[in-house]
Amino acid sequence: MEDVPGERYMSLRHLVAQRREAAFRSGRVQEVMSSSDLTYMADLIDRGTMVSYLDQSIPITYPTIGWQRDTTTLSRRGSGNGVDYRLNAARLIPRVDEGGEYLTIDPDDESYTAHTYKYGASFSLTWETWLADNRDLGLLAQYPRTWGLSARYTQQYEFTSKYANSATLFTGAHGNYMSGAGSQLDAANLAIAIHAIRNFLDPSGNVSPYAGPLYLVVPTTLELTARALVESQVVITGDALTMPANNQVRNSATVVVDHFLEAVSTANGTTAWYLFKDPRLCPALRYGFLRGYETPSIYVKEADARMLLGGGSDPFDGAFLNDDIEFKVRFTWGVDEVDWRGGYKSTGEAEAEG
């Protein structure tokens, strides 16, 4: 009987050791599984974000009418605003006589300020929600879609706002601005705009004829009008409707519908229309990213807790204090005005009646 307490003690110690070893092994297995699952989930999130970021359900116009020019620094308080230059092309080169000297031509370069900013937001998911989702990646398959679409939405919103609300890109002094009653989108006004934008003077006062592509940018309210205007072979006018006339502005421009114009334009959002030159030849607007950060990035906060008996820290176990699982999306983006000669705007008010 005296050995019973000793046997019980040894049995209890052995039991504790067994449970400790089992917990440790369990933690190791959980750690291995968590690492594997995390890699799979990270790949799923990254792919889901990129698929939605490229989703055409949010149509973008900046690759068509904007000039991509990335920067090496971000704009910060008082710094990070890079100065970029563009050379005005198509200059007269003088003839050189026999024995004559080659004269220097001033390149007449112009500068503009390039801004690229950091954008981002955080998202949290409770551990209970993660468990209620049965950890079947349902939520993590949906969240990336919203992140990618949100980044795409933000970039186009900022781009459209830059030119639609600009008070310096389009002005009467430049000759690239039409306003008031009678500035509606029709063949006569489009012809005026085309003639103006194709014949602006360069900074030295030289005629700089432009024969490249033009883009007619309109809100959704003017899409049918714009397409009928530049894509129809004939235009029928008058009351008789029997004498079709040749459409003189057919194929003069490519129609681009900016679905954000009505929402972001502070004035004339449903009536204003725009012409833009090919940004490769004469850009009105610049857009770009911080080099090396051209697409959205998703981050998950490392867990600040770990299991007492082994096992690595798993972000999907949540934070130590509240078990929240935290994510962050970050991307870089910037839009700037480059050259007013690359664009033309009409506020599009209808002609006054009577």
Number of strands: 14
Radius of gyration over C-alpha positions, nearest whole angstrom: 31 Å
Q: DSSP helix count?
A: 7
Give helix % range.
25-40%
The geometry reads as globular
Indicate the proportion of strand residues. Answer: 15-25%
Largest sheet: 5 strands, mixed
Global structural class:
alpha+beta
**N→C terminal distance:** 120 Å
Secondary-structure element string: HHEEEEHHEHEHEEEHEEEEE
Overall pLDDT confidence: 79
Parts with pLDDT < 50 across at least 5 consecutive residues: 1-17, 22-35
Please, could you describe this protein's structure?
The chain is 32% helix and 20% strand. By secondary structure, it is an alpha+beta fold. Strands 1, 4, 11, 12 and 13 form a five-stranded mixed beta sheet that branches. A five-stranded mixed beta sheet has the order 5-14-10-6-9, with helices on one face. It has a two-stranded antiparallel ribbon with strand order 2-3. A hairpin with a 7-residue loop joins strand 7 (234-236) and strand 8. Helix 1 runs parallel beside helix 4. It is globular, with a radius of gyration of 31 Å. The termini are far apart. Mean pLDDT is 79; it is low at 1-17 and 22-35.
Descriptive key words:
14 strands; globular; 354 residues; five-stranded mixed beta sheet; 7 helices; 32% helix; disordered N terminus; alpha+beta
